[in-house]
Specification:
Order of helices and strands: EEEHEEHEHHHEHEHEEHHHH
CATH superfamily of the largest domain: P-loop containing nucleotide triphosphate hydrolases
Number of domains: 2
Distance between the termini: 29 Å
Shape: globular
Radius of gyration: 21 Å
Bound molecules: iron/sulfur cluster
Helix content: 25-40%
Number of helices: 11
Number of strands: 10
Strand content: 15-25%
Oligomer: single chain
């Protein structure tokens, strides 16, 4: 296998928590991301999945160096981006772009669509003006819009169309890596499948690598090659998509899968939904961070933190009963609809 496009090792982001205005005293540390490691190949999609507050979006921002890490390395084509100078960081940013979650907030309402898409080319000094205009038209067609849309303003478009504009903007400077930060979670269910399938189609055509952030396993089922499940700042399971869906090992992954109703009612089982809230990252539980919600927790789980071994961070990974296929909790009523829509869109693609 060729060298990875992206290598992340021991990545951490800790925020000091202080009390007092004058002579503020540090009273704790929020461990938003706490020792995350993974690789991403060219043309591959790695999905980072977990509940809100698990550190997945912070990880995405660290990977793009939009925020500085507390520890760890992010290597892009073998080069550590955490030590790049200004000029090299700008060159890296041309190669690694982001599609934001909120297509309403991420577009400047005063810019025409043409100016929005052309802006990254201007910032990076790519092409002359006439060539940029031609490229904007090409990009609009690529994302399923029309060249005349370049003259319009964001408020004239629907949420799904705005996200297409955001994708066109990200692709303007021909990146190798696109971080998709919950790109469909702000969209109507009926539009989500169209945007997910557009991203999959663009990946095939352009050979893009995606780091795809999502809180919903139903979304990544149709777009990911591999999936990393995060809980309280750590990866608790990482596996090929098929293996993860067929044989989830970590109890938290099982709980996330249980939240997706199986389309076939005969395959539905009685899975206990995950109870409780995610504990605060300010005072994460000792030992395994998941032990306060895990139905299998034992004494060792409360005392010793499990290492990520063979893709799973669980003391009992070898002993737990097989997960089987009965993953449905009925916790996410929209998920069945989404799964059906994705399947239908994939058939038509
Ligand atoms: Fe559950 Fe223990 Fe495994 Fe943590 S280590 S997931 S508490 S069984």
């Amino acid at each position: 296998m060729s060298a990875p496009l992206l290598e992340v090792a021991g990545l951490a982001k800790h925020y000091p928590v202080k009390r007092g205005l004058i002579l503020a005293k540090q009273i704790g540390t929020v461990r938003a991301v706490d020792g995350v490691s993974f690789t991403l190949q060219r043309g591959e999609t790695l999905a980072l999945v977990g509940e809100s507050g698990c550190g997945k979006s912070t990880t995405a921002r660290l990977v793009l160096r939009l925020i500085e890490p507390s520890a760890g390395e992010v290597r892009f084509e073998g080069r550590d981006i955490t030590s790049l100078d200004r000029a090299d960081l700008k060159a890296f940013r041309r190669r690694a772009q982001i599609v934001f979650q909120d297509p309403y907030a991420s577009l400047n309402p005063r810019y025409t669509v043409g100016r929005t898409i052309a802006e990254p080319m201007e910032v990076h000094g790519v092409r002359d003006e006439a060539s940029r205009r031609a490229r904007v038209e090409e990009l609009l067609r690529l994302v399923g819009l029309a060249p005349y849309h370049a003259e319009r303003f964001p408020h004239e478009f629907s949420g799904g169309q705005r996200q297409r504009i955001g994708i066109a903007r990200a692709l303007a400077v021909e990146p190798d890596l696109v971080v998709c930060d919950e790109p469909v979670s702000a969209l109507d269910v009926s539009i989500q499948a169209q945007v997910v399938n557009l991203l999959a189609d663009l990946q095939k055509r352009l050979g893009l690598a995606y780091l795809f952030i999502a809180h919903d396993l139903a979304v990544v089922k149709h777009v990911a090659d591999r999936i990393a499940v995060m809980y309280l700042g750590k990866i608790v399971e990482i596996a090929e998509k098929r293996a993860l869906f067929a044989n989830p090992c970590h109890p938290y992954t099982r709980a996330l899968l249980a939240a997706i109703p199986h389309p076939d009612p005969r395959r539905r089982g009685q899975v206990t939904p995950l109870g409780g809230d995610v504990p605060s990252p300010l005072n994460p539980p000792p030992g395994c961070r998941f032990h306060t919600r895990c139905p299998f927790a034992r004494d060792i789980c409360r005392e010793k933190e499990p290492a990520l071994a063979n893709g799973v961070a669980c003391h009992l990974a070898e002993e737990l009963p097989p997960a089987g296929l009965d993953f449905s909790g009925g916790l996410a009523p929209n998920a069945a609809k989404r799964l059906a829509l994705y399947a239908k869109a994939a058939e038509n693609a």
